[in-house]
Specification:
With 281 residues, this protein is an alpha/beta fold. It is built from 10 helices and 13 strands. Strand 1, helix 3 and strand 2 form a beta-alpha-beta unit. Its main location: membrane.
């Protein structure tokens, strides 16, 4: 029994030493300063809507990033879901396409952990039509397309309410739906569509409420073509650079945040979009 115990102790000691060596090896491989330096120099991959977000990022990439020591890659997405899920699962490092009410709703519904870094611009939501020249010209029973996601639908209804087309129940906010309409003098009908589809519906409906980025992509000029346009004053709908929680202090993210709020980017937004996109800094 004494010999058996001795052999058993040897096995235990050997196992402990082996585990310790493995642990040290993993620690050395996983947390060395060289890896941190490599991460800081790695490309920063940002998911973005094509217009204006990817255009603004491309301006930064082509004109400001190299001098700032930032390797920036831009990935375009045409929907409002994939940029957040890709950021959550690490497929991209950051995204730039959304506002705070939308993000709050998305995180709550999807269990994601996306956090804002810096607000860059506002895209005013607008009401557009191929059939009438003013909102007052909408006939009784007219059909209006609105985005079907929670935040943008509420935002669309508020736009209509602010311009006297409907009235909303007191307290209706970022979750308002057509069920919250208390007065509808024109008896408007609402067609709920994915936000990206609203500008494409203009030949089929009497009017549509369209997000600014999709309006610009569809060759609409919000400052000129909208029948009514959302006010930029005190708006909670500024679009921001966002990352997964815990990545806010990534030096590459901080660098991009500085570039996105630089005088050069502000001038680019003012010159290119002529009021259809408004810098928020």
């Amino acid at each position: 029994m004494r010999n058996t115990a001795k052999r058993f102790n040897v096995k235990i000691t050997t196992a402990v030493l082996t585990a310790g060596a493995l642990s040290l090896g993993l620690t050395a491989c996983g947390s060395g300063s060289d890896d941190k330096a490599a991460d800081a120099d790695a490309p920063l991959v940002v998911a973005a809507s094509p217009v204006p977000h990817a255009e603004i990022l491309t301006f930064v990439k082509d004109n400001l990033a190299k001098e700032a020591g930032l390797d920036l890659e831009v990935k375009e997405f045409t929907d409002y879901v994939t940029p957040n899920t890709a950021t959550e699962d690490g497929s991209v490092d950051a995204n730039y396409f959304q506002n705070q009410p939308y993000l709050d709703d998305f995180n709550k519904k999807n269990g994601t952990h996306i956090a804002p870094v810096v607000t860059v611009h506002l895209e005013p939501l607008g009401l557009y039509s191929h059939k009438v020249k003013s909102a007052d010209d909408l006939k009784s029973g007219a059909t209006v397309a609105v985005p079907n996601d929670t935040v943008n639908e509420a935002r669309a209804l508020k736009l209509l309410a602010d311009n006297g087309l409907i009235e909303l129940k007191k307290g209706a906010d970022s979750a308002a739906t057509p069920a919250d309409i208390t007065k509808n003098p024109k008896n408007l009908k609402f067609k709920e569509l994915e936000a990206a589809q609203t500008p494409r519906s203009l030949d089929d409906v009497d009017a549509a409420v369209v997000n600014g980025n999709y309006a610009i992509e569809s060759d609409l000029q919000p400052a000129e073509d909208a029948l009514v346009l959302e006010s930029a004053e005190n708006s909670p709908y500024g679009n921001f650079l966002a990352v997964k929680e815990g990545s806010e202090d990534d030096p590459r993210v901080k660098k991009l945040a500085e570039l996105l709020t630089s005088p050069e980017v502000k001038k680019f937004i003012e010159d290119k979009y002529a009021g259809s996109v408004i810098a928020s800094f």
